[in-house]
TrEMBL record, chain A:
This is Cytochrome c oxidase subunit 3. The lineage of its organism: Bacteria, Pseudomonadati, Bacteroidota, Cytophagia, Cytophagales. It is a multi-pass membrane protein. It comes from the Bacteria. Belongs to the cytochrome c oxidase subunit 3 family.
From TrEMBL, chain B:
Signal peptide: none annotated. It comes from Pontibacter aydingkolensis. This is Cbb3-type cytochrome c oxidase subunit I. Pfam families: COX1 (PF00115). It is a multi-pass membrane protein. It comes from the Bacteria. Residues 586-608 are annotated as: Disordered. It is found in: Membrane. Keywords: Electron transport, Heme, Iron, Membrane, Metal-binding, Respiratory chain, Transmembrane, Transmembrane helix, Transport.
Length: 248, 608
């Protein structure tokens, strides 16, 4: 037979079809695209923060003379300086630093869970998922305390022009500064907290599946990887939220 | 002679073979909660048609008011009830009508109805996949859209009426329930409905993108994809990146409305009473809204680009002119669409320098748009044109896109826009370039792919009547609007008879309204044709248009899994029409080069 009888094969390059060009399953790709989309959601919210803050006057006096006023945006160190159990002490950003450490630690344990999944080590996956759930829940607990303190307010509160005092914050008035300061704090950290909560729910679900051996029977722990992607993303977003609210 | 029996590859395709096994589905799984992309596409199509008639009907009501401002509409009382007082349309209801017309047409018809239908239907069929990457998420996307539709539809029947602050829902008007009736519970439902709509778009979008990347059949490289798939790919990316910003904006607006925050509100007096809100900025909402809003117009028009490119090439019996230029111009449009949003805001008091930057970026979009238009015309040029109804609508699309696009160049100039902003010139511009044009793209798609969807043909004669009536009506409605717009006639006014200047346009407004009513009436021809042909239409053959793309290699009515046997392998691009030396004037994508030795070009010889 001549060469023309050989079976004609289509091209088989990376993007020539019939394969996974990005070397990722469809589920993983979907998670990536969802995260890209979610990044725009958070991006919009952080831009709102930036623009709102820019529209308000900054505090120009000396840091020692700072007092809360609706006239200017407060200095973060003066707002977030409480620590549970250490009432009355000025510990700027200490608690939020601890929270951040806990969340970053949860990302580390998540990496270890994913890595254990690659080794098909069911016990290790369980162990590290449990640690991640623990750290995630602790972070949420810390945030609840932070919110509670923010809502209750300091002992002194803010003195208004008519001599009365405002304690704590809600969505319409707050003792720390312009109303938008509290609005944005509640909205953006709350939106992030909702993401962490969803992440914890997902983690609990895959933990139960892991215990029941669902992934072991399936032959791969890709679901752990996908939830891991989400978890790291939420962690990364926190870094930006932290930077915007607490550092600058 | 070469033999290419591809059936000797047992493992031609790897994904979704499990879909072959569920053949014993009950009615609920097969037609209601179906995970089959073809059924979901039809569900989107039916929902889209339903919404299009609602949206069209609303526009007819407000055109009655604009065309005959002195008339009494007592005959409408049975339908509109309390919205007609002593035969006069309630002015606040007029605002609700235009708001809902815009919302329904832009989001529910031309976003969900257009890309929902054709992305679902065409992506798996044209790339050679058994179904979408995740059928379940696809189903979820439709049902969340359905829920959002139910809420939006329900809001039409509220006592205070549906949302009335314009489809752009600018605060502070939309943020203050006490401002107008249309900002009361109707606006709350609008926001809830849109939030659900965005979730649905997100689920659909990740699915479309992932499917195109991962599930292309063997040989279907990115540069062998039909332009429809490319267009739907960019549409999905635009939606994925722009809708979340609207989501953020809507959530903040919900908080302003319901929980007392001040994100968009500051220093407002309403009915003599000062509101406590302070520090927010309504302009901020406009920035967030138009960051979605501008890509949204391309979300609406890109699928039409794709459908029209495919139909024009098929029916001109010529390869599409400038295939790669078409893809490149779509990339250009997609990227530019994210950096031009502030051209909707030239009169918000923005820095004129910033305005000039946005003007410059806006005008650049004319370049890729012109590339596309010239490519379509060059494809038609000396083609062996078959004037099928789909083709008529495709050509009509090109015509409308040119007419509407030219005024875009005028409006994109920040200096000219100050004169024309919020006049009927703007209304005429966007209705031609994205409203009517996208509708024409959608009609073109429905007429062309109807045989694949329902196994029957739409009636071509009725189709031609539908086309000509719609085409003429669209021009008769929107061309005069340019003139009254240039004269300064403002948008969103319930009644203009109080202005001496505008009384000379009474006849022209009556004329526009008549044309609009005739145009709307013509759509019932389509509705009849559509429903009748589903049941009684002429039976379609497997490949009625002699087209090259893969969907025409499936059986007349493809079942679950699309191809009964192996998925075809792809060897060539989708535009081998009228190739010199070939016995037929089309060579489908799954025909290997070894089978077409008489027509192979020199560079294709080594592919044999």
């Amino acid at each position: 037979m001549s060469t023309s009888t050989t079976l004609e094969e289509p091209k088989t390059g990376t993007w020539d079809g019939g394969n996974e060009p990005l070397k990722a399953s469809y589920g993983k790709l979907m998670m990536w695209f969802f995260l890209l989309s979610d990044a725009f959601t958070f991006g919009a919210l952080l831009i709102v923060y930036g623009l709102s803050r820019h529209a308000h006057l900054p505090y120009t006096g000396k840091p020692e003379d700072f007092s809360f006023s609706t006239e200017y945006w407060p200095i973060p160190e003066k707002v977030y300086n409480a620590f549970p159990g250490l009432h009355g002490m000025d510990l700027p950003l200490a608690f939020v630093a601890l929270m951040t450490m806990i969340l970053i630690l949860s990302s580390v344990t998540m990496v270890l869970a994913v890595e254990a999944g690659h080794r098909m080590d069911k016990n290790d996956v369980q162990k590290w998922l449990l640690w991640t759930i623990l750290f995630g829940t602790t972070f949420l607990g810390c945030q609840a305390w932070e919110w509670a303190h923010f809502i209750t307010g300091t002992d002194e509160g803010m003195i208004l022009a008519d001599g009365s005092r405002v304690f704590g914050a809600n969505l319409t008035v707050n003792q720390y500064g312009p109303p938008l300061f509290a609005d944005l704090f509640f909205f953006i950290t709350g939106f992030h907290g909702t993401h962490v909560l969803s992440g914890v729910v997902l983690l609990v679900m895959i933990f139960i599946n892991t215990v029941n051996g669902v992934y072991h029977k399936r032959g791969h722990y890709e679901m752990v990887e996908k939830v891991g992607l989400y978890w790291h993303f939420v962690d990364l977003v926190w870094v930006f939220v932290f930077t915007f609210f607490y550092l600058i | 002679m070469s033999s290419t029996d591809i059936s000797i590859h047992p493992d031609v395709h790897h994904a979704h073979d499990e879909h072959d096994h569920h053949h014993d589905q009950n009615f609920l799984e097969k037609y209601i909660f179906s995970q089959d992309h073809k059924v979901i596409a039809k569900q989107f199509l039916f929902a889209g048609i339903f919404w299009a008639f609602i949206g069209g009907f609303l526009s007819v009501i407000f055109r009655l008011q604009l065309g005959w401002p002195e008339a009494t509409f007592t005959f409408l009382e049975p339908i509109l009830g309390g919205w007609i007082q002593n035969g006069k349309l309630d002015p606040e209801f007029y605002l609700a009508l235009v708001t809902m017309h815009g919302t329904i047409m832009v989001f529910f018809v031309l976003t969900a109805g257009l890309s929902g239908t054709f992305a679902n239907f065409l992506i798996p069929l044209q790339i050679g996949a058994r179904d979408m990457a995740s059928g379940f998420m696809n189903m979820l996307s439709f049902w969340i859209f359905f829920l959002s539709s139910v809420i939006m539809f329900w809001s039409l029947f509220l006592e205070t009426g549906p949302a009335g602050g314009g489809w752009t829902v600018y605060p502070p008007l939309s943020a203050l329930p006490q401002a107008i009736k249309g900002s009361a519970s109707g606006m709350t439902m609008w926001l809830i409905s849109m939030a659900l709509f965005i979730v649905s778009q997100l689920l659909a979008g990740v699915n479309y993108i992932t499917t195109i990347i991962n599930l292309r059949t063997k040989g279907m490289s990115m540069t062998k994809l039909p332009l429809t798939v490319w267009a739907l790919f960019f549409t999905a990316i635009l939606g994925l990146l722009s809708f979340p910003v609207l989501f953020s904006a809507a959530l903040l607006l919900i908080f302003d409305r319901s929980f007392g925050t001040s994100f968009y509100l500051s220093d407002i007096y309403i009915a003599g009473e000062a509101l406590t809100n302070t520090g927010g900025s309504p302009i901020l909402f406009q920035h967030l809204f138009w960051f979605l809003g501008h890509p949204e117009v391309y979300i609406v028009i890109l699928p039409a680009f794709g459908l029209v490119s495919e139909v024009i090439a098929t029916n001109s019996r010529k390869p599409i002119f400038g295939y790669r230029a078409m893809i490149g111009s779509m990339i250009g449009i997609a990227i530019l669409s994210f950096v031009v949003w502030a051209h909707h805001m030239f009169v918000t008091g923005m820095n004129p320098f910033l305005g000039s930057v946005f003007m410059f970026l806006t005008l650049i979009i004319a370049v890729p748009s012109a590339v596309k238009v010239f490519n379509w015309i060059a494809t038609l040029w000396r083609g062996n044109i078959r004037f099928s109804t789909g083709m008529l609508f495709a050509i009509g699309f090109v015509s409308l896109f040119i007419s509407g696009g030219l005024t875009g160049i005028i409006l994109g100039n920040s200096a000219l826009d100050i004169q024309l902003h919020d006049t009927y010139f703007v209304v005429a511009h966007f209705h031609l370039v994205m409203g009517a044009a996208a509708f024409f793209g959608m009609f073109c798609g429905v007429y062309h792919w109807f045989p694949k969807m329902f196994g029957r043909m739409l009636d071509e004669k009725l189709g031609a009547v539908h086309f000509w009536m719609t085409f003429i009506a669209v021009y008769l409605v929107f061309m005069p609007m340019h003139y009254i717009g240039i004269a300064g006639f403002p948008r969103r006014y319930y009644n203009w008879t109080g202005f001496e200047t505008f009384n000379i346009f009474t006849d022209m407004n009556t004329f526009i309204s008549l044309a609009a009513i005739i145009g709307f009436g013509a759509q019932f021809l389509f509705l009849f044709n559509f429903i009748y042909s589903i049941f009684k239409g002429r039976r379609a053959t497997q490949n009625p248009w002699h087209s090259n793309t893969l969907e025409w290699t499936t059986p007349v009515l493809p079942g679950h899994g699309n191809w009964p046997g192996e998925i075809p392998t792809v060897y060539r691009w989708p535009y081998d029409y009228s190739k010199p030396g070939a016995p037929e004037d089309f060579i489908p994508q799954n025909v290997p080069f070894s089978a077409t030795q008489s027509s192979n070009l020199p560079n294709e010889k080594d592919l044999e």
